[in-house]
Specification:
Layout: H1 4-24, H2 29-34, H3 55-60, H4 71-74, E1 85-104, E2 116-137, E3 140-157, H5 162-169, H6 171-181, E4 186-187, E5 191-213, E6 218-242, E7 245-246, E8 257-258, H7 259-267, H8 274-286, E9 290-311, E10 314-321, E11 327-334, E12 348-350, E13 356-366, E14 369-378, E15 395-407, E16 412-424, E17 439-451, E18 454-465, E19 468-469, E20 478-495
Antiparallel strand pairs: 1-2, 1-20, 2-3, 3-5, 4-7, 5-6, 6-8, 6-9, 9-10, 9-11, 10-13, 11-12, 13-14, 14-15, 15-16, 16-17, 17-18, 18-20, 19-20
Helix pairs in contact: 1-6, 1-8, 7-8
Length: about 500
Amino acid sequence: MVSFETNIFLISLCTVLIIFYKMNKKKALAVAILTLCSTSFAFAGGILTNTNQSARFARLMALEATTTTDAAYYNPAGTIKLAEGFHFSFSNQSAFQERIINSTYSPYKGSGGSDFKQFKGTASAPIIPSLQAVYRKGNWALSGNLAVVGGGGKATFNDGISMFEAPIAAIPPAIQGFAESLSLPLTCNQYAYDTYMTGTNYIFGGQIGGTYKINDMFSVYAGFRLNIVHNKYEGYIRDIKINPNSQVPGLGNGEMVNASEYFTQLSANPMLNAEQQNMLKQYAASTADKELNSKQSGWGVAPILGVHFSYKGLNIGAKYEFRTSLNVENKTQYNKDAGLDSFKDGVNTAHDVPAYFTIGASYDIIAPLTVNVGYHHFFDKDADMAGGKQKHLTGGTNEYLAGVEYRINPMFLVSMGGQITRYGLADGFQSDLSFSVNSYSLGFGGAVNVSKNVQINVGYFYTDYSDYKMADVAGSPSTSYTRKNKVFTAGVDFSF
């Protein structure tokens, strides 16, 4: 028979846990998994857009006024400047990224370490192919592009992240603090758990359109891109443990025990009222194993308009891509006790690709030297995102690009370029699994003209990211975000 002392102690414990649960219910473990539906692993460009679509981008960056074959993507109205005939450009990029979360939170000490933890996620995309094609005849040019226009990688968090761990880490000190305040014989100062999360995100794009030459200076373009989204998410939070230790029988002996089983056992005590029993059952549910295996797919179409101006050694190109309005539909194979209604099979989630505008210029200063500049603006706030995240942005993304190319001789050329990216970020938009960070990129490389109609391009660019510091909230981890990124590219252009 359970002693009267045990019952009174348990009732008191439940009372404070009710308060703790109500204060922290927004930190439920399931909420963390939900943010995956808006995760993207873009390596250059806006929040959901890859602008690194050719090997030349890595070594030059500013291609908004280009008149080579990759103009099929960057400056489609400029394709009219190519010679008559067929032109193809094939590129592959290998991109590697680290996502770093620095988090300080006193309860982390319960895992046997300090109050500071660094969580790392790795995203790799060794194969990101793209194909540009142009056929030019007279005053017309037909162009197309096949590429991974968004995402393109797999991000894996092998050792958890702050938003997974913080709610678990908070359980022992909540129990411990309550017991100490009332001088009750209960301690709890350790926790453990097992977690894994991986997400794959691809937006495949197929673009086609036509360019018309108005005169020697002006040409215009109209076309569209079909965007197809494929996302896959797998993960779990398992075996959450705590170490309750009390002189009161039935409340723990200091060994690590399964938290969900512990709270389930306590909830069965008949001396508790309905609210107390329900609270313990909610704790048991929130600390139970969570597993997810879901795929998402959808498609949408974006019209594209462009214009190009040229005069002697000057080229100016501009392009506007309309917003791709689309939802992704879930195909969930496994969703064990996760309480994730948004991942239920058949549920649709907003996944728009923002509209964006580009403009740039290139100028031949002297015969072998060309200078390039460019600008991008992404209309992020007008794109519907999962959970209405776009409402938290303060504005769209702005990118500033510049590059120089020097032709050493008819066979060899070298180039270098840079890009500055500035987002309209706010805390409400950021999360551990989906965050953007201001950055600048530097790239360099070269090309070899192996014959009159064949050119090989190679390049490398590195992105340096700022730290984004979240505003401190009492009782929550102090968190900052950053990344590391590098991309290797190689490609071949040929005409006939």
